[in-house]
Amino acid sequence: LKHFIHQVDTKNMGFPSLNLDTQTMENHFLQEEYLMGANLSGILVRSIPTLSCAKGQLEVGDVILAINGKSLNNDGSVRHESLQHVDYRYLINSSKMGDDITFRVLR
To answer: CA 66 to CA 104: how far, in whole Å?
Structure first.
């Protein structure tokens, strides 16, 4: 509701989305293939649509380790304050249009 009210007040309507095709990294062999050490976790970027704002920033084959400083689990979840574990897309969708989003990736 706060997100909606902010949008109305600023006339900045919409919810951000990257439209990425991702894959979880729960498979040990997949982790080895992408040289993930035992202390790393994240999700694999499988494709990036041409019109995605991530195009040119992220690359196919990147492993997203963190978004805005919040580490991702291999199942694509992230620990988020009182919500416990939520899907990583929550971090994107709860942003406002035009906000900068920081990714830490394994390339």
So the answer is: 5
For the cut 80, the answer to whether the pLDDT of residue 1 exceeds it is no
Of 37, 12, 24, the C-alpha closest to 96 is 12
pLDDT per residue over 63-78, tens digit each?
Answer: 999 999 999 999 999 9
C-alpha to C-alpha distance for 88 and 76, rounded to whole angstroms: 6
Q: Are 97 and 31 in contact (CB under 8 A)?
A: no
Please give the model's pTM, rounded to 2 decimal places: 0.82
* DSSP per-residue letters across 65-100: EEETTEEBPTTSEEE-GGG-EEETHHHHHTS-TT--
Cβ(25)–Cβ(44) under 8 Å? yes
